[in-house]
């Protein structure tokens, strides 16, 4: 597990660098260093269910942090598309799914937004997923890197955002949006 976590950390770091480059942000402009980012690994088990229509694997949500790198053993991930329908994300052998979180939405000033997603169970297969989460240190300041435009989110610490998220759930970004 430790080797897997190190590999995911390296991948997440490279993805963050690419996104920051696209946003024209240098690593030096961060008030926290990417190499000091925190991480966590979450193993999920979704056993077969005799009545999957009456069971939720994982309720609809967006991810709170910067990046989530997900491996799923079988179908079970769905994303909410076009504002009205759930679409199954079929696993591709050897591929990983990358979800962007709310902190990335804040940093990118809304350019890199997360997507509403959920996990569902089925009658036949036991699904296992491994989610790797990457985020800045809890006391780090997070603010939009908006050089040529007005920021759409208030600046706050990761801890403050997570407290707002715990209280307001999916409405947390709306709470910190600058009116």
Automatic annotation (TrEMBL):
Per UniProt, what is the name of the gene that codes for the protein in this document? LOC113704823
**Name of the protein described by the UniProt record:** Gibberellin 3-beta-dioxygenase 1-like
The yes or no answer to whether the keyword Lyase is present is: no
Instruction: Report the PROSITE patterns cross-referenced here.
Output: FE2OG_OXY
User: Domain Fe2OG dioxygenase: where?
Assistant: 37-136
Q: Which UniProt keywords apply?
A: Signal
Alphabetical list of PANTHER family matching this protein: 2-OXOGLUTARATE (2OG) AND FE(II)-DEPENDENT OXYGENASE SUPERFAMILY PROTEIN-RELATED
The protein's matches in InterPro entries, at most eight in alphabetical order, are given as: IPNS-like_FE2OG_OXY, IPNS-like_sf, Iron_ascorbate_oxido_reductase, Oxoglu/Fe-dep_dioxygenase_dom
Q: Which Pfam families match?
A: 2OG-FeII_Oxy
Q: Mind telling me which Gene3D superfamilies this protein's record contains? A: B-lactam Antibiotic, Isopenicillin N Synthase, Chain
The signal peptide stretch is 1-27
């Amino acid at each position: 597990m430790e080797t897997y976590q190190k590999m995911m950390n390296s991948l997440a770091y490279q993805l963050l660098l690419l996104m920051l480059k696209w946003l024209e942000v240098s690593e030096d402009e961060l008030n926290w260093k990417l190499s000091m980012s925190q991480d966590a690994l979450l193993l999920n088990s979704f056993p077969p269910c005799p009545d999957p229509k009456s069971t939720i694997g994982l309720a609809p949500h967006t991810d709170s942090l910067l990046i989530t790198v997900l491996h799923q053993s079988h179908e079970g991930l769905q994303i909410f598309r076009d504002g009205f329908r759930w679409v199954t994300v079929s696993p591709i052998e050897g591929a990983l799914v990358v979800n962007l979180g709310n902190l990335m939405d804040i940093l990118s000033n809304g350019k890199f937004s997360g997507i509403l997603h959920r996990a569902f169970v089925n009658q036949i297969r036991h699904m296992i997923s491994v989610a790797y989460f990457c985020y800045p240190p809890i006391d780090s300041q997070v603010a939009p890197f908006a050089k040529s435009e007005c920021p759409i989110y208030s600046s706050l610490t990761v801890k403050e955002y997570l407290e707002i998220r715990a209280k307001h759930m999916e409405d947390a970004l709306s709470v910190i949006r600058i009116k």
